[in-house]
């Protein structure tokens, strides 16, 4: 990963985890993102209301929350797309940030490979672009036009375009929201493999609680512009919906979203029947 984080390399680490990092003291992990007291208002209404959040290097954080809770606003601030955010302690994010949106946002008049390497300089750019396309399973499609690709394939190109820039921080705003369920599952596997290989810090905005559990190290719940819960995904077995631990975590997250979770509802119904 790149090493030019804006004001981050020298920051104190705050957690007691033990993986260590070349840029931090032994036994500590470097923070890639640090947000303190972040405020964003629209027309006098606070959409981000003094928000605090840290993301460590290599960490995969999923951000969930009800519609309008401020998820995309936070992501835009981290992407450097919003210069009107305020903060008491501020917002530290790296310079090398890539963003993946729900729609792939490819330039239709450029071929796939040209979309991937757009804006990259240097003789090796094309080779890196080809390698990125290989990684996302699109070898041989370099000269295709975006319109010739399926939605899932276009999103693969979008991922290749992000990763070829070797970001320290990958921001993803509902990247699989427009895909069918099967393609989404395949993309989960692909994203996980890519992140294991490239190891960016990731902030994934999603409405899909299962997507959050399957992919993330931590799930953060946003409610009215503040962090309502910050839960480490620490499941002993495979992350499959069948396990009781998975179901309990899913229930807990759905509870934070104000959804009556199925397992809890069944328990309540059983208790009612017994009474
Ligand atoms: N440019 C803007 N002007 C005015 N209000 C805005 C603007 N951008 C966002 N908002 C408001 O800020 C609030 C949070 O929006 P945001 O898009 O961050 O929510 P979200 O959690 O991503 O929602 P969703 O899950 O529906 O995508 C909403 O009430 C929205 O109307």
UniProtKB/TrEMBL annotation:
<dbReference type="InterPro" id="IPR003593">
    <property type="entry name" value="AAA+_ATPase"/>
</dbReference>
<keyword id="KW-0813">Transport</keyword>
<dbReference type="InterPro" id="IPR017871">
    <property type="entry name" value="ABC_transporter-like_CS"/>
</dbReference>
<feature type="region of interest" description="Disordered">
    <location>
        <begin position="1"/>
        <end position="29"/>
    </location>
</feature>
<dbReference type="InterPro" id="IPR027417">
    <property type="entry name" value="P-loop_NTPase"/>
</dbReference>
<keyword id="KW-0472">Membrane</keyword>
<feature type="domain" description="ABC transporter">
    <location>
        <begin position="33"/>
        <end position="249"/>
    </location>
</feature>
<feature type="compositionally biased region" description="Low complexity">
    <location>
        <begin position="11"/>
        <end position="21"/>
    </location>
</feature>
<dbReference type="InterPro" id="IPR050166">
    <property type="entry name" value="ABC_transporter_ATP-bind"/>
</dbReference>
<keyword id="KW-0067">ATP-binding</keyword>
<keyword id="KW-1003">Cell membrane</keyword>
<dbReference type="GO" id="GO:0005524">
    <property type="term" value="F:ATP binding"/>
</dbReference>
<protein>
    <submittedName>
        <fullName>ABC transporter ATP-binding protein</fullName>
    </submittedName>
</protein>
<dbReference type="Pfam" id="PF00005">
    <property type="entry name" value="ABC_tran"/>
</dbReference>
<dbReference type="InterPro" id="IPR003439">
    <property type="entry name" value="ABC_transporter-like_ATP-bd"/>
</dbReference>
<keyword id="KW-0547">Nucleotide-binding</keyword>
<keyword id="KW-1278">Translocase</keyword>
